[in-house]
Amino acid sequence: MDMRHILSHISSFAPATHVTGIACGNGVLSGGRYRGVAPGAHIISLKILDALGQGTSLRAIRAMRWILDNAPQYNIKVVNLSIGTNDRRVHRPLQEAVESLWHKGIVVVAAAANPDGGTHFLPPPSLSPAILSVGTWEDRAWFPAKQTTSVGQPDLWAHGENIISVLSPDYNFSLQNRSKSSIVDHSYIAMSGASMATPMVSGMAACLLERFPSLTPSQVKQHLCAAAEKNGGLLEPSCLPE
Question: Which of 31, 48, 104, 228 is deepest in the core (most CB within 10 A)?
């Protein structure tokens, strides 16, 4: 299967370069050591936030509409949403946008949430049970007691602590929660959060579709969740069926 442009990433406060590298970086700058999960996949990156990480749901919806219109041309099969929102209620247009992609045969993988000040979680970007939501394995203990939305647990978990991926030359260290102490070398940096766990699952979805191209999004979700369940809820590349 031609994996070109199989992954589409909607960029967010989490640096798009870092997220992209987790999903499908080729690791050439590290001699393959920090290679992404699906290094054969290509990326179409749609920027919806500004340099300060600010944006609106409308921009996200427009990006998803662009994907919906252009998916056949670019062979887009997986959409990674490493984004968050302060909205405590279901955003219906955003929910409808991600579900439209899903029903058109595109796997949507979204970051579930991150701890916010140690007291509660930001809600997932879509608040939709249809898509595939990913939580950070290291933060899973917070969900049963601290989850403030009606969505509940993520569909599965992936590692999201100190994940090493590509460092953009334009990375802005002046923004919140960004430290030069996380730099691994001139080409790579370690970052943490659900935004890092999510592209791991997006990459695994791409790998699964390469092996079984006829799978529907619901079947991809079933396969990945079943694989994670056998591993205590944690999805890793080694869990994927051959």
Answer: 228
